[in-house]
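Bump. Still looking for Asp23/Gls24 family envelope stress response protein structure tokens.
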Amino acid sequence: MSTDTGAAAPAVPDRTPPGERGFTRIADRVVAKIAARAAREAIAPLPRDLGPPHATVNVRPRARGTGPVEDSPFATARVRVVLELEYPGDIGARCAAVRRRVTERVGTLANMEVPQVVVEVERLRLPGERQGRTV
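Sorry for the wait, here they are.
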């Protein structure tokens, strides 16, 4: 005869530290969208005739076993932002603002370290210049 009373065995709490329970991967394209949006915010207001910023990202996961797990970034992201700016204007200051904003937003929203943000100014546009190809 069985002595099982039907009572469930007490649950054993998971003793695995939070940082070792699983792995979160944020896709490169998501980080690129965050970076492009941050660049747009940095150069706001964006005139209607300027194209929106584009970003490409190279994300490298944090090596396992390197440093403390709590509050450390998931990965390292190297970002390249391509944008158009209006001229005349302080190009250097606007590029610096883009770098700061991209670093801050990617770090905050994706929990990634951003050691490098390359800002490429694809085109300088004069006020009133039409969009598209000129002859």
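The beta strands are 54-61, 75-86, 112-125.

Edit: fixed formatting.
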